Amino acid sequence: MKTIKTLVAPLFISALIFGCGSTADIISTPVENIDSSPLKVSELTEAEAQNWGHLDLVKDTIPGMSVDKAYAELIKNRKGKKVIVAVLDSGIDIDHEDLDDVIWTNKDEIPNNGKDDDNNGYIDDIHGWNFLGEGYNEQLEYVRILASGDTSHPDYARAKAEYEEEYQKWLGRKQQYDQIHQQIKRADEVLSGHLGKDNYTKEDVKAIESNDETVNQAKQMAEYMFSNGMDSMADAIEEIESGLKSINDRLNYNLNKDFKGRVTGDDPDNFSTKYYGNNNVKHSTKDESHGTHVAGIIAAERNNGLGANGVANNVEIMAVRTVPNGDEYDKDVALAIRYAVDNGAKVINGSFGKSFSPHSDWVREAIAYAAKNDVVFVHAAGNDSKDVDVEPNYPDDNVNGEEISDTYIRVGALAPKYGSQMVASFSNYGKNNVDIFAPGAKVYSTTPENEYATKGGTSMAAPAVAGIAALIRSYFPDLTAAQVKQVILDSGLAINTKVIVGGNTSDIRPFADLSKSSKMANAYNALIMAAKMSK
């Protein structure tokens, strides 16, 4: 592998960034021909897999953000200014062992006295606010449009077509999963009976020799499961049952025109009623893990011997429960953004999105409000493998092609394999409406009840960039939110390689054509560029 060296020794760079002197013209990696370097062909180790988004492209041949390098060579033991990052998401396990010391506390509110001590309209909002109340399951937005019965709605025809296609697709998946579930369970029962034990191993299955066709079919099924990454038939059953739950949720709640999910008592089409919900920002069930995972990517306590490291080391997470199991309401999102801004957040992460938005103007006005108040808003690009320049994904920051915010960043997802497969197959993209890419596939982070898991989505890529934004705001607090966005986009790694787009192997394009910046986010470069821009 051809070594691509930085232009200045790390010790000198550190002195320039955090000292009082002026900065030199330095950019870290890569400076030339990164695309000619050998690709990593070996499988990631467990340690690499659980931390790949923090690794360095040159050193590790993995398309991470050079976070560990930034801490080792630039940040070291320094502490910057505390930065509040609002996570607009599902509930967050604020008592998680890897998050409990980084949760924002509203010091102007007296806990649990039933009063609005700080006069912000939200009673006892100690760690944030819950705009969902006791609810969680919700319809998708286009299902709400159909359920309203208003055929004059401008999106009614599009919603109807989307519903008919999606409902049949998910009904077909349910039938497939039900059949597979029955087959796996039956095979497990046959093997358990044949082997005389429930907890049999791969070796036990491999050693089976039988003239019984049923036993041999069960063995074949088990070996197929093992070849697809399952460690046991019990794991296979758990995996398929988890998939079935998601499918049933989609049919019973998200696509059910008769389901009534909202329990807050307000009218989601009336923006004048703003103070609803409650102060319980925690997850409602263990399955409500999305917000906890996102929060960990941003700010899980670093190097504490526990499961994950966040990108930013001097952050307080403000929990704003906004996103249900289904599509979020525009009203909730708009109010959540305003709540975060008004209560001191300097970075907002929005790992959600949808293709229908009846009150998109409310959300855009809130995004513009965040920009006016010097707040960075980071948004996930979406997981539909689509070009968002052509097919809409909300929330967005433009009206008729004109941007209404200079602090909004939309993020696509990378996979942990540099080369043609580095763009996650599910990731949306867009030369005009996606700003940058960051690690988003197979990301390891916190989940409720002191657990950890690997998840994938642009939902995981956005908080990676939100973490970089928090780092810049922490160490260079004189930079405006607009400057922070500029630094993140300008300091990324510009890669010349061609990539598979949308998981379609016949669609090969230059990586540079998939986003406005044409780059991958890089924490190390961002801190160096921020130092140059800072006073």
UniProtKB/TrEMBL annotation:
Transferase as a keyword? no
Keywords for the protein's UniProt record, in alphabetical order: Hydrolase, Protease, Serine protease, Signal
* Top-rank taxon: Bacteria
**In its UniProt entry, what is this protein called?**
S8 family serine peptidase
Identify its protein family. Answer: Belongs to the peptidase S8 family.
Tell me the active site.
Answer: D89, H290, S459
Describe the location of the Peptidase S8/S53 domain by residue ranges. 80-491
Q: Which residues form the signal peptide?
A: 1-24
InterPro entries tied to this protein: Pept_S8_subtilisin_bacteroid, Peptidase_S8/S53_dom, Peptidase_S8/S53_dom_sf, Peptidase_S8/S53_subtilisin, Peptidase_S8_Asp-AS, Peptidase_S8_His-AS, Peptidase_S8_Ser-AS, Peptidase_S8_subtilisin-rel
UniProt keyword annotation of Protease present: yes
